[in-house]
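Quick one: structure tokens for this chain, please?
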Amino acid sequence: MGINPGVRSALTGHHFAGYSNRFWKVLFDAGLVPERITCADDWRLPEFGYGITNLIARPSPGIDSLRPQEYVEGWKVLERKIRRYRPGIVALVGLTLWRAILPRLDLDEEERARLKRAPAVGAQPVKIHGARVHVLPNPSGRNANFSYAEMVEAFRGVKGAR
């Protein structure tokens, strides 16, 4: 799950469709899908046991234009989806998404503060309606915080948690 669709994703109607986005390549290289697929194949994710969504439906060229109320409304929709579909794992693509969701989780302030300080990539010690939470690096080409190998390893952690 990502924060919101980028402009290219909105234009094509497919998730993670940006030219420099490595999401689909990382999925294959991490062993999460058995064949190379592209954004045009996003509809096939359920056949591999995955779903995909965004916190906020409105596309934008970046997250700077998203309003605080959109995060609140998006969280309400996401909670309903998690309750309805009951996934075993909710994988959050991007540390920014984790930081956006963290204040909305039903945690005491001490736990929230601890999680805010702790390294965020990987499995988290919280659940959302029974689903384990796993934070992944954002595979956007604009993300220089993680090497490609680090991204693959982080995504591989989701496979190991299934």
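The chain has a mean pLDDT of 91.
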